[in-house]
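Readers of this paper often ask what the protein records in our data store actually look like. An entry from our holdings is shown next, in its original layout:
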Amino acid sequence: MRRLLRILVLGGILGVGGLTGCAGKKPPPGVTDLPRDGARPASGVALVLGGGGARGFAEIGVLRVLEQEKVPIDLVVGASVGSLIGALYADTGKVLDAEFLAVAVNEEDLFDYRLFSFFSGGFVKGERLESFLDAHLRNKTIESLSVPFVAVAVDLRTGKAVAFDKGPVARAVHASCAIPGVFVPVTIGEATYVDGGVSDPIPVDIARRKGAEVVIAVAIPPAVPGSAPSNPLEVAYHSAMIMSAEIGRLRAREADVVITPEVGNVAYDDFSRKKALIEAGESAARQALPAIRAILSARGSRS
């Protein structure tokens, strides 16, 4: 099943990643048509969490260090698994709470495989993901979260990245995590959504448009296999992962500081190495602390 899902992810990335289009006339429920240059509805420090499947557990380690070092987080923006980790943290604003849930979650909590769901666009319906969040989050709506939060998904018709900054947390995160070809796309209002990582894997642009003065981004690199793939499907899959990661790397350059945990060859669906991933996130965050302190100091001197 794992090999099959990887092949399906490949199909989703190659089939959806090139979509382009224009915005609809009216944002669907839960989506804000964010102002561009000019109006700034927020300010402060934004943490942008990118995708990467199970490798995204490294983001918990990053959050742990930022909290220990008293780095302020005024806004969390997440795409794909980054929206899941971001929501777990934004719920109470305490890393310990987020870490407890992240460590407790397993593959069965997130993936409800249904063979006939394939005819609706994927093998996973995503109902378990929503149920997990509804059962464990103290705050059910984005507006009520302790830390301002945005989940980024992609409109399947237009290819436009959209920002969910209000409405049910579980539904927004589900849309942001809906890996093409694996998860059934999520319909909200009149629009259909897939994984935010398809076109905006590290949505620094969304954080800027929300008014963040300082942006710290976490970029999860692609898995590094023990040897170069030789099977044609594996070659194509790994090449697509590299391509997606490169798009994310280019997006991340818009951030003030980029944290890149060394996650090695952990597969996107490997939930057995959370401790090592969290430690990798911690290590990367500590290496980035001098740059973070410098940018915060410069910001303070301008205030």
